[in-house]
Amino acid sequence: MAILFLSGPISHLSGKMGDPSYHIWQPLAGGYRFIISQAIGWCLYTISLILLVLIHINGDNSTLLLGLHFVLPLAVAAQACISISVKFYDPEDCTHPVVEHPPPPPHCSVLLDISLAFVVPAAGVVLGALGMHVASQATTPTQEEVGCALLSTVAVANIAGFHLLWTHFWLMLSAGALLIRHEFLLGVATAMGFGLCLPWQFLLVIRRQLDAPGRALAGWGNFFGQLLGLGPQAFFGVEAMPSCFRLGFRLFDLSGHVFPMLVLFQHSGRHVTPAAVVLAYVLARLWSLSITLHHISIDFAELHRGRLRLLRHSQQRSAWVDRGVINQMYGFEPPMPPSVCHFVWCGEVICMASLLLVTLLEEQIKVQVLWTLGGGAMTDSWGLIHWAIRCTVLGIGSFWLGTIIVLAEKSLMSAALFVLLALLAGLGCFQILELKGGTMAIAQMLGLLF
Q1: How many domains does the chain fold into?
Q2: Residue 233 lies in a domain
Q3: Is 97 left (phi over 0), alpha (psi -120 to 50) or beta?
Q4: Is residue 309 part of a domain?
Q5: Are residues 112 and 207 in the same domain?
Q6: HSE toward the beta carbon, residue 397, CA cutoff 13 A
Q7: Residue 100 counted as domain residue
Q8: What is the mean pLDDT of each run of 10 residues along the chain (450 residues)?
Q9: 19: how many CB neighbours lie within 10 A of its CB?
């Protein structure tokens, strides 16, 4: 059995020996036949490995019988697909890294390939085993299991190079910490949100001449233009952008930055400790370092030619990134000057240092200060959640209106079709909310986390 499970990885490694352009980690590259056979092979391999793990966990006759009937055939089929895929490998369809600055030393790339080749499948096996165990018990996953799965998925995605924006990473971490009710992680998420949101809000006000909302919206408009195959600037540029989009951006910014930060202050302020503040700052620096070392994006030009390719980006490693890949991730067009990142990083240090001093106060005073910073004197967590929902709905409406204006300038027929689809979508959402009791149902669902 051990030889059978080792044969798959050995076959995969043999491709590296046969062709120098073959990489251990090269997702969606190497030709469609290679991609499909690799995907099928590693999926079967993972399923058979999960079943093998379950056999050793349960150890009963029914599970053993299941293993004899399924594990061996699946493992043999996995080995066959992986071995065949090596023969299908097309070096002309292999995507090489896109490098903006001198790449990291060769040994770093080798270590990354080896670590990703084992860490990602191992994490997939753990998550899959958890899912199959829950399914075998015929029970609904608990809140803690969902939280662990969410945190594991975020960690695996970032290790693999599919980095989330720092805001999204913080929101996912906060959601996972709330689900598993981990006090220390809640303190880390609270400190992380303060170090992220306050400098960003000051940037939007003090450096408003840089028009961060306009640059971000122009970049994301170009992104969706490429995604839909319409080409860059298919929707609008910074100059021709309707004001509705900037309004929608600010509304979403409130619901995605300000209100979650305030909710965490009220709900988890008592969990903020000096260690949590230090770890929150260290995580921010590690995220910055990881995106400069190894970040993956989709090649949309090749995607619309029928080829799925991923591009690996790397640049000069820095724990305080101020150019290059961070502009690409956030979609700033034209790119933000490095002074913007310097402003945010300096603001983050000031916020973290201030929060660290607050955590050194007496417990009762600390909780009262953080509760006040969270707007506790004006409203409670429920009120903040309601305002976040309202801002999200108004933001969607602003973006819809802006999109209608842009489409009307190009084609009245397209604008009319979009209005019809928007009305149908809005009507469907209204019916769902009406069945669930409106926004109060959403608030109650979120309230289960508290």
Answers
A1: 2
A2: yes
A3: beta
A4: yes
A5: no
A6: 8
A7: no
A8: 68 70 69 74 78 65 55 75 75 49 39 38 46 51 80 82 88 91 92 93 87 82 62 53 82 91 92 93 91 80 68 81 86 85 90 92 90 89 88 86 75 71 65 50 45
A9: 15
